Amino acid sequence: MQGTAWVEATVTPAGCVAAGRLVKSPHLLLGLSSLWAVSGWRFEPTLLAGKPVPVIISVAVDYKLR
């Protein structure tokens, strides 16, 4: 299997992924794998007027055969 899975995730003010949603995937297994992977990522907090705020991001996870 190969293709790109799109995940939408909410990043907390602490930089952790609080919630994720599969937007599009060429196969369910790739989508579930992408959700699992993105849920473990950590980000630099987004600052607004110097204070960390939650944000929603879109992430493309590519799967390619070699």
Question: What does this protein look like?
Answer:
- The protein contains 1 helix and 5 strands.
- By secondary structure, the chain is of the alpha+beta class.
- The protein has one domain (3-63).
- The mean pLDDT is 95.
Tell me the strand percentage band: over 45%
Report, as a whole number of angstroms, the end-to-end distance.
11 Å
As for the number of domains, it is 1
Q: What is the general shape? A: elongated
* CA radius of gyration: 13 Å
Regions with little confidence, pLDDT below 50 for 5+ residues: none
Number of strands: 5
Q: Major sheet, described briefly?
A: 3 strands, antiparallel
Mean pLDDT: 95
Number of helices: 1
Helix content: 10-25%
Strand order of the largest sheet: 2-1-5
Characteristic key phrases:
66 residues, 1 helix, alpha+beta
